[in-house]
């Protein structure tokens, strides 16, 4: 296929109120001590990032240089966000 026939597919970049830098690995390590299952940690952080980007207020003090993922990780580290298992109904 010729390059002239290829139309680039451009996706709009998501807009974040917290345009900081990528996640800091030390925060990931500390949050992993609280939520050791990587899948759970990823799901909790991604859900909280979505909430923050949709206008929810951070539960911790923030700096302009902090990204939404950093805020979510700090919230987990400081115990502002907890994961509970729902009891199975018999």
UniProtKB/TrEMBL annotation:
Its EC number is 2.7.7.6. Keywords: DNA-directed RNA polymerase, Transcription. Residues 1-21 are annotated as: Disordered. One of its GO terms (biological process) is DNA-templated transcription. It holds the Pfam family RNA_pol_Rpb6. GO terms for cellular component: DNA-directed RNA polymerase complex. InterPro entries: Pol_omega/Rpo6/RPB6, RPB6/omega-like_sf. It catalyses: RNA(n) + a ribonucleoside 5'-triphosphate = RNA(n+1) + diphosphate. Belongs to the RNA polymerase subunit omega family. This is DNA-directed RNA polymerase subunit omega.
């Amino acid at each position: 296929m010729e390059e002239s026939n290829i139309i680039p597919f451009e996706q709009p970049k998501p807009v974040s109120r917290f345009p900081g830098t990528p996640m800091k690995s030390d925060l990931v390590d500390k949050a992993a001590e609280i939520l050791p299952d990587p899948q759970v940690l990823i799901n909790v952080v991604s859900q909280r990032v979505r909430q923050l980007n949709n206008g929810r207020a951070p539960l911790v003090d923030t700096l302009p240089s902090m990204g939404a993922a950093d805020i979510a990780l700090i919230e987990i580290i400081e115990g502002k966000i907890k994961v509970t298992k729902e009891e199975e109904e018999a």
